[in-house]
Amino acid sequence: MGPSGTGKTFIASGLCADAVQKGYKAYFRTMEDITNMLKMKDVTRTALAEYRRLSKANLIVIDDIMLFPVEKTQAVALFNFINHLYENTSFIITTNKMPAEWAKMLDDEVLATALLDRLLYRCEIINLSGKSYRMKNRKSFLED
């Protein structure tokens, strides 16, 4: 958890790659990828195949969770997906929102609490801080 550019995605993708190299079924997906898959799984075979693949994962990384507001139907689908997997699948979540802000993003405090209850079960929260590495290391096109 932390501001944009502090290395959340970099660390999460590295941990996912390490898990794959060690033989685990590990997948890196953005929140948008997950919500689109959940929306389409009953409509297309590719989305259903993706759902089945993720349902058998040892590790799922969900990048940029709660970056944007989530429609009610998608929030419920996300909860059901996490609820189905949280006992047997490890999750790495990257977010720039504090857990208290998730209720606003989901527009449902009860659903946010239930989702967080499952995701925070047996977890470690790593708070990253500081300035964006992208902004710190960018070179201005105006410089000589």
Features of this protein?
single chain, 144 residues, mainly alpha, Rossmann fold, 7 helices, 49% helix, globular
CATH class: Alpha Beta
CATH topology heading:
Rossmann fold
Give the integer mean of the pLDDT values: 92
Counting DSSP H or I runs of 4 or more residues, the number of helices is 7
Strand order of the largest sheet: 1-2-3
What is the chain-wise order of helices and strands? HEHHEHEHHH
In terms of structural class, how would the helical and strand content be classed? Answer: mainly alpha
Largest sheet: 3 strands, parallel
Q: So what's the overall shape?
A: globular
Could you name the ranges where pLDDT drops below 50 across 5 or more consecutive residues?
A: none
Total individual domains: 1
Q: How many DSSP E strands?
A: 3
Q: How far apart, in Å, are the first and last alpha carbons?
A: 36 Å
Task: State the CATH superfamily name.
Answer: P-loop containing nucleotide triphosphate hydrolases
Write the CATH architecture name. Answer: 3-Layer(aba) Sandwich
Please give the oligomerization state of what you see. Answer: single chain
